[in-house]
Amino acid sequence: MQCGCSPKGNCSQGNKPQSSPNSTIALVSDPRPRLFAVVCGINAYESKDFSRLRGAVKDAEAVVDLLVTNYHVPRAQIILLTDKAASRSSIISTLDGLSTDPRIQPGDPILFYFAGHGSEIDPPKGWECGGPNGKIQVLVPQDYCSEADRKIPGIPDRTIGFLLDKIAHTKGDNITVIFDCCHAASGTRGDLVRSVEVDSSIHTSILDIHIWGEHTARRGLASHVLLAACRPSELAREKDERGAFTTTLLKLLREVPPHELRYCDILHKIGPLSSQNPQCEGLHQGRYLFNAKVVSPAPVTYVPRYDPAFNAIVVNAGIAHGVTDGAEFAFYVAQDPHPGGKPLGIYVVDKATPFYSIMKPIGGSSMSALPSGLAAFQTQAGQGNALRVYISEAADRPTSSPRRVDKISRACGRDLRNVQFVDSRDKAHLELAIKENQVVITVRDPKTTQQGRYQLPPRTITWDELGPFLSKAKLFYSELDRSSIDTDVVKDIGIEFHRLQEMPSSFHNVSEPDLRPFGSNRLLPDGMIHLAVEDRYSYGVKLTNRGPYDLYPSLFYFDGSDPTRIRTYYEPSSSGPYLLEPPLKRNGGTLTIGYGSAGIPPFSYPVSGKVNVGFLKLLVSTRPLNSSSGTGPCLCSSGAQYAGRALKETWGTATIPIIHEKPNLRLVRRTMTT
Predict the structure, then answer these.
(1) pLDDT digit string (tens) for 16-39?
(2) Looking at domain 488-661, does it have CATH number 2.60.40?
(3) Are 69 and 81 in contact (CB under 8 A)?
(4) Given this chain, do its domains 36-281 and 488-661 carry the same CATH topology?
(5) Residue ranges under compositional bias (Polar residues) (predicted)?
(6) Architecture field, domain 36-281
(7) How far is CA 598 from CA 158, 163, 168, 180, 593, in A?
């Protein structure tokens, strides 16, 4: 008979091992998952103005059941707050207590789940929230009250963010947040929508300063991954007395073990939802669920389909995604992040447009008989900007003899696609000085050296490292050189690059400093940024959209001294097949990266030598590039006008050189030799 203390009935009261002075006791590690959770569900609100929900408490209890039954999390590691127990003070104090809980070790997974009403309010003065019409999102606690003699406000996203950052500071960033509520403030009084209107006036600029006044957030979306039931402008709905989002999410989590499910895959795999588009936010979306281990990058998947208008297979990925004519794709049955085995067919891109590509088969693949549920993985790069390589002897005797090219080809696995050997270092991205067992690589890219004004230190690698190095360098320079012929969309974006400084808080009685822009915009009229870099300096970017399009921006940094790495500063959230909320709204919308409301940590530029040259690259588009939403080809709309301009689906890029120099050191200049 099992005692019931654990799923297998093992506890200190039964099956206790016997020992003797001569026996050896095997030490077995504790099998209990080290996951800790705060789970909130509110049906009955104290305010008579709020509709009573039917499924929020059931949802919270179902989450607890999943953790205990499926994940075998000890019940003592889960705090369940329902209805009256989910007061404002209880929610805040419980979250705050996680940062000092001695049971939780750094790296242990932490879950915060909330099901109930949400809302949005006008931002208090001094709060950055993304433009003139931006809103602050709030969770509505059970005891919310706007009466003059007993004001209990909601819990703003700023407060939640600081609590999560405080937890991450002591316990690590393995934090998962799930919100099954909405923030549209629709005023709906039906019991199928988790949204209410709240009074903005009781949410003052110094609300919760005891939380964010003593801890300055720096991690933002680096502290956690958020799964939200819908976009900020939408409504989270109940169906059959349960939250629609929670129901379909828990079904997936019961079927797929967490060690096989990445955050970025969840919205692709959950069942369909009507009238709401779930969102996934956070810098660590590539992690497995509840696990801080980062997996190796998986290839991007696309959904192919037969389009009778073209009599061809079409994928919703094009030039804006980096797909070009001649690219090859393998089709598999399942959307496996790391596909294996023989593909159903190989297709090549016959015509790439900005947002979709028309394919043709290689071999005997059928043009129209495609089974459902296919996934397309790109296996070969298409035509693009070639990596230009100049080969020299160690003694500087130039040669590109077939023997040396063949040796390089063998090091690259015979894949020299988009590699061009040139006869002058002035034309090259990279110079390879070949020694017996080593290769010395020097950056010669004219943009990086600023036409020879700057010399970056060479690096030495082994022959075994050359293949992977050139493969990454091809991607580096191809992405750096890739641009759109449509420049209008970028012209409407104001770009500011600021040094950030800890400055006295603008909020009353707050001793901790804020991280805010210091000085003028560092982006000069010539389109370049010159920085006298010190390790203590940090930087941020502000984008202002003055154009007629809602935009999805991505911001990257290309380090000229290391052409194997592209650093991502910002990418929009993922939404799988659902519609994604645009981060950069039209007609004056703003987005701050590195500070402010976007939740992105600041960036810095340590310089090991005297000087370095890098590039800040902004890519914007009128549709999300990391989402599979939409099934039809992306064709420009006809007839739509704004201020005399035709509205269309488009994309654009802006590339800004950044010159980093150590303070008080003379610029290193050189005259290029030929």
Answers:
(1) 333 333 333 333 334 456 899 999
(2) yes
(3) no
(4) no
(5) 9-25
(6) 3-Layer(aba) Sandwich (3.40)
(7) 11, 16, 17, 21, 6
